[in-house]
Specification:
1 helix, three-stranded mixed sheet, globular, 16% helix, alpha+beta
Length: 162
């Protein structure tokens, strides 16, 4: 007898649970947002054109356009310029990204960027929404090293990450 009462209570509990879940689903088919405001600032699709760079004497700049991966479309993306340390061979060496000290710039809605007033030298450009998600600009599968001269702005053109 106790067993029958136990099973009856379990069955009634399941029926009540299933019925209450179905009524909740029917009440609203629109999911409740997790945030009342967007947690990440999203650039406007009508971003203003970049202003011309004004370099301090002896310094340089880098400009260009980065076409970002679809996974990054709604995120604020940064480009970093990390110094490249050559080991003597052509384009052989290393770089270490340290976001707190290396030059950086946010991409605008069209993917345009400007790195202004950086020291002349060799740089690897690294792009991503966060430093640990960033990817180095590559050419034919190798990391591309950019040479930046004093008192000049290097235009890298358009780089496609899609």
């Amino acid at each position: 007898m106790r067993r029958r009462i136990f099973y009856l209570i379990i069955i009634i509990g399941l029926i009540v649970t299933v019925t209450s879940c179905k009524s909740t689903e029917n009440e609203s088919s629109v999911p409740t947002p997790m945030f009342s405001e967007s947690p990440i600032a999203r650039p406007s699709p009508t971003a203003a054109a970049l202003s011309p760079m004004t370099l301090e004497p002896g310094l340089s700049g880098i400009t260009g356009i980065i076409l970002v991966k679809s996974a990054w479309q709604d995120r604020e993306v940064t480009i970093y310029a990390s110094p490249f340390y050559s080991t003597g061979s052509e384009n052989k060496g290393f770089f270490v990204l340290e976001p707190s000290i290396h030059p950086s710039s946010k991409l605008n809605a069209r993917g345009e960027f400007q790195l202004e007033n950086i020291e002349p030298g060799l740089y690897v450009l690294i792009v991503g929404p966060m430093p640990d998600e960033a990817i180095a600009v590559q050419k034919s599968g190798d990391i591309e090293v950019f040479s930046v001269n004093a008192n000049e702005v290097l235009d890298i053109g358009k780089k496609d990450f899609r």
